[in-house]
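ok so for the tutorial part 2 we go from a plain amino acid sequence to predicted structure tokens. step 1 is just haveing the sequence, like this:
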Amino acid sequence: MTTAVIVGGGPNGLAAAALLAKAGLRVTLLEAADEAGGGTRSDEAILPGLLHDHCSAIHPMAIASPALRALDLGAHGLRWRLPEIDCVHPLDDGTAGILLRSVDATAAGLGPDGDRYRALLAPSVRHWDALAEDVMGPLLRIPAHPLLLARFGLPTVLPAVALARIFRTPQARALWAGVAAHAYRPLSHPLSSAIGLGILTAGHASGWAVAEGGSRSIATALIAVLRAHGGTIETGVRITDRRRLPPADVTLLDLDPGQVADLYGDRLPARVTAAYRRFRRGPGAFKVDLAVEGGVPWADERARRAGTVHLGGPLAEVAATEQDVTEGRMPERPFVLVGQQYLADPSRSAGDVHPVWTYAHVPHGYDGDATEAILRQLERFAPGVRERIVGRRVTRPADFAATNPNFAGGDILTGAKTIPQLVLGARPTLDPYSTGLPGVFLCSAATPPGPGAHGMCGAGAAASALRHLGVHPPWEGSGPRRRRE
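step 2 — the prediction. this is what the tokens look like for a chain of 485 residues:
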């Protein structure tokens, strides 16, 4: 029987393992931590019964993922839940940008910007099922739907601040800026619109979903698929020497490029080693989980019904803070993301005490304390919130890195989304999952399409591994079958 070894059990390693096992390979997954899941883990560390997600929390790209749909995770217990309002971006004057599941409903709330918002997004949302595999895969390939992809892709090349100029109201501009800021890039740079447009399109198509029972439910379902097809998982196994790897026909690495260079040393082609050593890391995350009695008392009532709240003020403020963190400066008012997953999934709360998930964008490797800056941003838009906080847990950039080496410096995206790395991944090649070693593939979020719980990086690497073995990936369409580099 053909064998595969997967090193690293984050969502991409798990997706790759499950897809290969379903394709008939005998799969062994090795995970350094005591439990698999990587960024898709959850726990009750603050209060019993109060469930917080470790990292990945809101999943517009995962619910829309072709890879996860191919694995039929619903049959293995995964249930998606949707909030009443997807996202709110409040402003100091009491107004806000409001993102709803429907493009038309969102447009209706944007007043004079409604028609422009609809024109920007509605065509791609309408065709998302056809677009998803092209958008959520390597860019250097022949697309299945070139005209649809071109229509989607043309606005993505613009700097986010330039695209914002199509809007006239501060509410629409702020809403766009907050979504674009998920890229952790200066909003003045080319292609800084790409990730934001991807999130908005997928979100309007499928919703800003949360996993019932916490993000760990995604990992649990992936593990169930893997085991149902005969795969095995070994936890507490940290591979730092390639001689410890079991022999296998293919090996997939859910690691950042630097770890791959360390693991394989001079066995890698020199050009690959050089590229992996040059791989650039991005800004960090500083996370504060809160236990809030009665929920956050947002000044804007609509934020009390939103699964996600972006705290960053107007477009100019968001752009300035993202520029600061990229250049290594800690802003006084950082961009803060707030997750209220319990609104869609009440099982996460403990009575009237609710889990509130927050993190701020901070410079890479930031060693200060951003807790007070996060609380000030909360108080700015929710006066009185401090009096409701009955527990907290702080996760600094170094803490992220200690529990997941892929998150070095608190870089939870596994790499800066510069133009080369956004387009090409870890190195320039037609197959971004290839390491240059026959049978060895990179499957982490350092490869296209990048970070998230969607598993598409793992699916891309698994497809490359099967092509290496002369097998067409059964979850892909019947388009041209090309042997990759």
